[in-house]
Structure formats: structure tokens, C-alpha cells
Design the sequence.
């Protein structure tokens, strides 16, 4: 499906504990075809800072009477995300999408009934809600590992917990400061369960350091992994060549077109 | 609104321009490196509305490009160091050019060489393709250490280089000028002496940015090319100087986004403009400028866009 460039209507900005919020947008019917892991390029400011659009994973999508509604889970990190936080219902923002390659299948082997692991580092949880919904619809059980520095970094934790429970799995939360869930890194409880051979696949999104570690863990345990990457991006559709990701074979792939989802063993971390 | 009373179809102002041997339906082109090979935009923009498309820089062999991070975003612009990643001239001619033939936009191929002889070899290779209206020599990319810019910063070498290309092609030759030199006029004059037909001004401005928290340069290559609104006054100044002093038609490039920007470059002496970084922000920028420019000419009561070229009214000579 070809992406569309739309002047989308802001429905609302839903605050989560700062610095997180959800931006809810109404747009065209074509958005309903958005697949888990895909993203949109959003113009956050009509001024000069930032000049370029920003890429956001589509967090959720739902049908409306006249089109589709998407939700973006956003962390305020700079002028663009700050400007979007100040949008009001009825405001218009330019949105190009959906873009990029989505998450793949839960596994190749239909006889493998083991659950899958979804692993989020902070706002990396954004694309994993839609993936969780897809897995639930496919009847695939999943555990959701949610790591952050503190409790505040586990935005929409309850929603993820409910979704995982509905699939027959559970939410495992960790924080570095111990303010929620287990104290420590999300890779610790994941590693224990992987050692027990519990999962058939790992889907992840988060800081590069986390995903690099996950790729190592996946390899150690012989478990396939897919990771949604975030890089600086100029255009989002393969024209500027700014979002290069180095692969293990030495080639540069484009995060926007060849990704943002990559097999974790094809990326040179 | 009442219907027009005349039976004649309303005629808009004449947007066509001629630069040396290059005729364009309108003066709005897309800049090299910002429009892919054209087809990346086919579903996002109306390619049939554009005056011309300048391809991503093409080299004899495919190039892998620079390691990431390749882009940064200082206020009002974009800093890049892509490193001329491209599919190579042969793949372009075989796989891309036929698809571009569907559109009336004139195709200009931007050519990049590591070695002196690469430029003539590339120009010779594309000479027989009627779908290519002109060549633009990239002798000004700041992001590759070898080739390219070595020729664009040395007037003696550049004159020889352009002449070597002139000897193998009848197509109009545009030379893309670097702003990172003391005298762009001297470089432009060398290009003219070598047989260039058009000057494209400017390529990106050499820049640098640092992340204050990680202390890392924003670009893996440390330095890169700055583009976008931040560099427009630099570009207008160079277009003004080059247009008046060299006497070749000029294509203005650098921060073009609004109709005012287009008019400003035309007044400074450009016969056409290339839209670059603004296309990333809005893929329809170029075609919107075609409409906007026509509307502006009507508002200014001008019949043809060429009336604006070089029509700046300086306060004093010089």
C-alpha cells in the first residue's frame, strides 16, 4: 500500500506521566491498513525548529465513521515532541504514512506453540501495542517485558499488562531505580526465561544498547529476534538516504525502507 | 464567482525558461540528492508538474556511502554526510531512466567522479540517451574526501575537467558550484572557460554540529553539508555575484521553499531554481511552487517569468 500525505486532525493529546503523552489523530481510511512496526512522519512545527518531520511508530489504530484514528505514543525529548504536546483538538498536522517494513510472523514452525517475548525499553513500547493486538488476534501467547529507568518510563503499563494477560501471558516490568517491578535491567528476567527455553521469538524496540544486548542474548539461546530501530531520519521514504543502518554483511540498509524492523542478527550493532 | 466572459481559455503567465541549450516548461527543478532518482516521489508528488528533476549524484560504480549517523538537524536546516551512496550509472540507465520517461519534466543527471577521467566517461556514457536533457557536474560535494570537490576548488583543474566533458557530449553542461571557496566567481569563470553552459549554485555549506550530552559530532564524518533555509542568504549572494560576473545562466539552489524564495533567486539573477531539503518536509513543495509562481506573476502583472531574472534593484553599483 502506498503511503498518503495527509493534513490530519488532532483529536486530543492524552497526558501520561511526564514526559510521555499520546497524540491521537484522525485521518484517511488508508491508515486502517497500518501494520505493527510501521511509522508515520509528522510535521511538528510550521517554523524552523525542527525543520524536518519526525518519525513516530504507530502505537494504535482504530476505524472511525469516516476514516481511521491513530495514536502515537510520544516522549518529549526536544522541540518537535514539545511542540506536538501543545497541539489542541482540531489543530491540523501533516502526517505521511504508514511507512516502513512491519514486524514479521511469530514463527516459522506451526508446531512450535511456545509463546513469544515482546521487549520494550521505555518509549520503545510504542510499536509493540499494535503487535500485541495482532498476536492476540492470531492466538499467539506473549509475555511483555517492559524496562525503564523508573516507573514513569513504563507508559501505558496497565494496557500492556491487560493485553499480555488476554493472550495468556504476563507483563514483566523492571526499573533501574526499583520504583516499579523488579529492580534492574529488562534483560535479566528475559535471560532467565530464555535459558529455560520458554520463547520461540523475541520482538523488541528500545535504545540501541538494549537491542544490541537482546541480539546477543537471542544468539546465545538460538532464538530468532526482530528489532524495530530508531535512527535520525530526513524524509521517511528512501529519498534522502540519511537513515543508514549498517548490516553484518557490510551493506548500509535504510531504516525507513528496509526497516525500521530488522532481523536482530542482520544488524551490525 | 462569475464565469469568465471571454470564450478564450484563460492563459496563465509564461513560465518556460531557457538556460543555454536546456529548455524547461517552468523554472522549478528538484535538487540532486533530495529527490532520489525521481521515482521515489512518484506516489507523493506530481512529477509531471515539475520543470526538471536532477538525480542523486551518480558515479561509474555504485557507492556504499558513509557510516551513520549521516544527518543532523541544526536550527533551520539539515546537516548531512550521505557520502554519495548511489546505485551507479548503469543501474540508473537500465532500471530508472525508462520510468522517468513517462513525465514531461526534464531529467538532468548529476555526475560524480573520484578520478579526473570519471566525469568524461560518465558524460560519454549518457550522451546517447535522449531522455537525459543535461548533465550536472558535481564538483562540490563536501562529504567525500577523494574526487569531486578536489576539482571544484581548483579553477585550473576545473577548466580542464569541464573541457574533457565538453569534448564528449553535446548535452548542456551544468557545473554545480561549492560555496566553500573564497571566490565562487573565479570557479564559475573557469567552468565557463572549459565550456560549461550553466552554473548551479550552490552545493551545501560545510558545517558541523555536536551533541552537547554525548559530546559526539552529530555526523560520523564530523563535518558535513548544511542545507535548508539557514543557507539561503549565502546562496542568494553567490547567485547574484556569479550571474552578474560570469555571464552564464544560473540555477539557484539553497533553502528554496516559498514563492518569495523563488522570486528572490530570480531577482538575484537565477533563471531557474532547485528545491532541495524542503522536499523532505513536504514532498509537494516543488509543484506547489509552480502554481504559486504563476499566481505571483499574475499578481505582479507580469506575462513571463523571465521578466524577473536579474531584475533586482541594487541600492548602488557593486
Sequence:
Amino acid at each position: 500500500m502506498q503511503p498518503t500525505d495527509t493534513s490530519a486532525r488532532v483529536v486530543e493529546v492524552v497526558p501520561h506521566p511526564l514526559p510521555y503523552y499520546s497524540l491521537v489523530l484522525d485521518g484517511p481510511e488508508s491508515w486502517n491498513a497500518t501494520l505493527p512496526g510501521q511509522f508515520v512522519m509528522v510535521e511538528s512545527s510550521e517554523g524552523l525548529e525542527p525543520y524536518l518531520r519526525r518519525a513516530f511508530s504507530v502505537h494504535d489504530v482504530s476505524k472511525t465513521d469516516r476514516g481511521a484514528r491513530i495514536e502515537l505514543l510520544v516522549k518529549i525529548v526536544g522541540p518537535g515532541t514539545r511542540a506536538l504536546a501543545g497541539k489542541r483538538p482540531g489543530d491540523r498536522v501533516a502526517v505521511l504514512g504508514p511507512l516502513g517494513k512491519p514486524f514479521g510472523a511469530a514463527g516459522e514452525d506451526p508446531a512450535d506453540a511456545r509463546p513469544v517475548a515482546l521487549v520494550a525499553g521505555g518509549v520503545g513500547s510504542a510499536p509493540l501495542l499494535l503487535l500485541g493486538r495482532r498476536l492476540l488476534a492470531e492466538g499467539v501467547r506473549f509475555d511483555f517485558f517492559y524496562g525503564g529507568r523508573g516507573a514513569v518510563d513504563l507508559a501505558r503499563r496497565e494496557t500492556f499488562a491487560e493485553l499480555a494477560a488476554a493472550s495468556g501471558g504476563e507483563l514483566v516490568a523492571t526499573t533501574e531505580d526499583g520504583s516499579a517491578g523488579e529492580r534492574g535491567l529488562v534483560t535479566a528476567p528475559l535471560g532467565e526465561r530464555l535459558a529455560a527455553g520458554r520463547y520461540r521469538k523475541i520482538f523488541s524496540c528500545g535504545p540501541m544498547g538494549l537491542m544490541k544486548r537482546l541480539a546477543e542474548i537471542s544468539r546465545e539461546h538460538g532464538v530468532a529476534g526482530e528489532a524495530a530501530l530508531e535512527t535520525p531520519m530526513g524524509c521517511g521514504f528512501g529519498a534522502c538516504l540519511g537513515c543508514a543502518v549498517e548490516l553484518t554483511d557490510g551493506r548500509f540498509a535504510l531504516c525507513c525502507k528496509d526497516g525500521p524492523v530488522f532481523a536482530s542478527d542482520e544488524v551490525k550493532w | 464567482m462569475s464565469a469568465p466572459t471571454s470564450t478564450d481559455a484563460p492563459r496563465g503567465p509564461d513560465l518556460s525558461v531557457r538556460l543555454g541549450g536546456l529548455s524547461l516548461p517552468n523554472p522549478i527543478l528538484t535538487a540532486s540528492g533530495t529527490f532520489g532518482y525521481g521515482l521515489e516521489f512518484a506516489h507523493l508528488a506530481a512529477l509531471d508538474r515539475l520543470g526538471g528533476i536532477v538525480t542523486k549524484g551518480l558515479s561509474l560504480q555504485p557507492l556504499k556511502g558513509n557510516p551513520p549517523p549521516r544527518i543532523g538537524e541544526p536550527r533551520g536546516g539539515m546537516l548531512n554526510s550521505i557520502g554519495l551512496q548511489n546505485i551507479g550509472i548503469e543501474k540508473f540507465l537500465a532500471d530508472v531512466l525508462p520510468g522517468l520517461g513517462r513525465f514531461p519534466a526534464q531529467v538532468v543527471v548529476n555526475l560524480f567522479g573520484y578520478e579526473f577521467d570519471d566525469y568524461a566517461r560518465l558524460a560519454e556514457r549518457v550522451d546517447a540517451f535522449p531522455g537525459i536533457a543535461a548533465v550536472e557536474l558535481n564538483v562540490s560535494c563536501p562529504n567525500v574526501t577523494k574526487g569531486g570537490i578536489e576539482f571544484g576548488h581548483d579553477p585550473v583543474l576545473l577548466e580542464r575537467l569541464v573541457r574533457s566533458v565538453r569534448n564528449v557530449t553535446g548535452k548542456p553542461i551544468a557545473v554545480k558550484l561549492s560555496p566553500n571557496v573564497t571566490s565562487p566567481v573565479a570557479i564559475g569563470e573557469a567552468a565557463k572557460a572549459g565550456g560549461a553552459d550553466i552554473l548551479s549554485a550552490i552545493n551545501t555549506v560545510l558545517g558541523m554540529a555536536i551533541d552537547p550530552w554525548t559530546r559526539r559530532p552529530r555526523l560520523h564524518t564530523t563535518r558535513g553539508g548544511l542545507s535548508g533555509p539557514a543557507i539561503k542568504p549565502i546562496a542568494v549572494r553567490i547567485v547574484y555575484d556569479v550571474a552578474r560576473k560570469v555571464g552564464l545562466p544560473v540555477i539557484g539552489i539553497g533553502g528554496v521553499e516559498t514563492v518569495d524564495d523563488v522570486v528572490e533567486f530570480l531577482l538575484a539573477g537565477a533563471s531557474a531554481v532547485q528545491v532541495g531539503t524542503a522536499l523532505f518536509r513536504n514532498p509537494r513543495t516543488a509543484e506547489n511552487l509552480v502554481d504559486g509562481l504563476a499566481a505571483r506573476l499574475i499578481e505582479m502583472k507580469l506575462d513571463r517569468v523571465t521578466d524577473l531574472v536579474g531584475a533586482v534593484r541594487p541600492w548602488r553599483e557593486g
About this structure: Chain B touches chain A through 36 residues (CB under 8 Å).
